[in-house]
Specification:
With about 110 residues, the protein is an all-alpha fold. It contains four helices and no strands.
């Protein structure tokens, strides 16, 4: 199984496309594009948490190396955004902005849309 999609592909919690019927291919393609963009942005948010050091707050101090995938870290921080302290939010968003500029993802996405 592809390592970066391991978090998403699960018969209970995955994309669930086998349980759906999308009659139009253009609708299916748009849905998959949005899902892919969401996956990419959440992965980059996880990378921002590592860059800013916030990932260390997610695990015990005895663990070395990455415990959660970048996608799962991004999902954790995305869910917590409304309740983050302002200084943590600023730190995370600054690191996220740096990563977006480095990867040129935001420019590429706006160019597509």
């Amino acid at each position: 199984m592809c390592r970066r999609h391991r978090d998403l592909k699960n018969e209970h919690f995955g994309l669930g496309l086998s349980a759906t019927h999308i009659g139009r291919t253009d609708c299916r393609d748009r849905l998959l594009m949005v899902a892919s963009l969401a996956h990419a942005f959440l992965t980059l948010l996880g990378a921002a948490s590592e860059r800013s050091g916030l990932d260390r707050t997610m695990v015990s101090s005895t663990k070395r190396g990455r415990v959660y995938s970048l996608f799962n870290q991004g999902l954790f921080w995305y869910r917590g955004l409304p309740n983050l302290k302002p200084e943590r939010l600023r730190t995370l968003m600054n690191a996220f902005a740096e990563i977006l500029v480095e990867t040129r993802l935001a420019t590429a996405v706006t160019g597509i849309l």
